[in-house]
Design brief:
417 residues, alpha/beta, TIM Barrel, 2 domains, eight-stranded parallel β-barrel, 12 helices, 26% strand, binds pyridoxal-5'-phosphate
């Protein structure tokens, strides 16, 4: 069930007309469908109903607290990559025992903060990090649960910028070094070896790379057992893709079947870190057409959202479906839809057939719930946009639009000026 549908000529989010949101909060804004977030979480969770598991939503995909709370209410934990994300998730009410902490560059204060709150485990990405966590745990009289993020050297077949599990990537510890590190970890005073972890990339549209990686890690798990190191958690990471355009990623149930099949003989507790899969198609960005201009061989539609609001097209040349919020355009036109930013990379659509938008028309960019607002910035001194959550026939602003005063918050004029 798609919760972003037309009723008559008007595009709705669930039972709320987007034009009504625009009238109240202005443009641009992100709108999230609570029913879609819920359905995605439930589908993912349900795919593993027969085995012990925890879904640790990857906060970086969309870190807005109301989104976090939606998943926490459904029993979800979180995957974090910074102290800031931990703070957000705790504020939203996450159970610290369902927090996993990934990332190649954890700082001392972040490690200490996570230890103090009692997270489930650190996904360790380097030898030095392991030593550091042990030292800090000892100093603070805590034990740190750890998993080693093993880099399995498997190609996920996705965009190079979101490929993370190949040998030359900065992520994880290579499979040939990981055995030694586990052996060392088992002797470190502040460390409790509890799991093994992988995350091979994002927007995967096939299950094989996941299964191939799991198979590689299973060999290691067996060897570790032989050494008396018995791991409880198998963190399979995130990365399951969604449909933006014509991709056909597996549905969570099919992904789940193959993962369960590959792991069931281990008897381990599975952990997942889905981000995009849960939020991507649950959010849209709504913007307004400011101007249009036509040249001999080119049409431009200038809108009030730019690459600072939705960076994915500029960053990965990625596709977002475009829909008219009110379907009354006179046909279609091949155009670039561009933002107000002074950069040529500032486009949301390049040379595609889109509705012939006119000044004042509202434009919806679909599948913008993941890595949308979360990657936004105030570049060009543009206040970050508002976020709205819709539930049935209600909607609420879950993040206020920034004001121009917010833009200079924290700035201090140098006294020597
Ligand atoms: C980004 C990230 C995820 C989430 O990836 P998705 O493709 O959004 O599911 C999960 N785990 C780690 C370690 C990540 O860095």
């Amino acid at each position: 069930m798609n919760h972003f549908q037309y009723k008559g000529n008007e595009l709705f989010a669930e039972d709320v007309a987007l034009k009504d949101i625009a009238a109240q909060v202005g443009t641009p804004f992100y709108a999230y469908s609570h029913a879609t977030l819920t359905r995605h979480f439930t589908a993912f969770d349900g795919a593993f109903a027969d085995v012990p598991h925890t879904i640790c939503y990857s906060v970086k995909a969309n870190s807005t607290q109301s989104v976090l709370k939606t998943f926490i209410n459904l029993g979800g934990g979180v995957d974090i990559v910074s102290g800031g994300e931990l703070y957000r998730a705790l504020k939203a009410g996450v159970d610290p025992g369902k927090v996993v902490y990934s990332g190649v560059g954890k700082k001392d204060d972040e490690i200490e903060y996570a230890l103090t709150t009692g997270i489930l485990m650190f996904n360790v990405e380097s030898e030095q990090e392991l030593t550091r966590i042990s030292e800090i745990a000892r100093r603070t009289g805590k034990k740190a649960g750890i998993a080693i993020r093993v880099n399995p050297d498997v190609d996920p077949g996705t965009h190079p910028y979101i490929t993370t599990g190949l040998k030359n990537a900065k992520f994880g510890i290579t499979i040939d070094r990981a055995m030694e590190e586990y052996t060392r970890a088992a002797t470190l005073p502040g460390i409790d070896v509890v799991g093994i972890d992988m995350h091979i990339g994002s927007q995967l549209t096939k299950v094989n790379p996941f299964v191939d990686s799991i198979e590689k890690l299973k060999i290691m798990i067996a060897r570790l057992r032989g050494q008396g190191i018995d791991l409880k958690y198998f963190d399979c990471g995130g990365g399951l893709g969604i449909q933006y355009n014509e991709e056909e990623p597996p549905v969570p149930a099919d992904y789940g079947k193959e993962i369960v099949n590959a792991t069931k003989d281990l008897g381990m507790h599975l952990v997942f870190e889905p981000g995009r899969n849960l939020v991507g198609n649950a959010g849209i960005l709504v913007s307004k057409c400011l101007f249009t201009k036509a040249r001999d061989d080119k049409n431009f539609i200038m809108i009030d959202a730019g690459m600072n609001d939705l960076a994915r097209p500029a960053l990965y040349d990625s596709f977002h479906g475009v829909q008219a919020v009110k379907k009354d355009q006179d046909g279609m036109i091949v155009a670039d839809i561009v933002g107000p930013i002074c950069e040529s990379g500032d486009f949301l659509v390049k040379g595609r057939e889109v509705p012939m938008f006119r000044q004042g028309d509202l434009v919806a960019f679909m599948s913008a719930g993941a890595y949308g607002f979360a990657m936004s910035s105030s570049y060009n001194s543009r206040p970050r946009v508002a976020e709205v959550m819709v539930k049935g026939d209600r909607f609420e602003v879950v993040r206020e639009r920034e004001t121009i005063e917010d833009l200079i918050k924290g700035e201090k004029m140098a006294t020597f000026l």
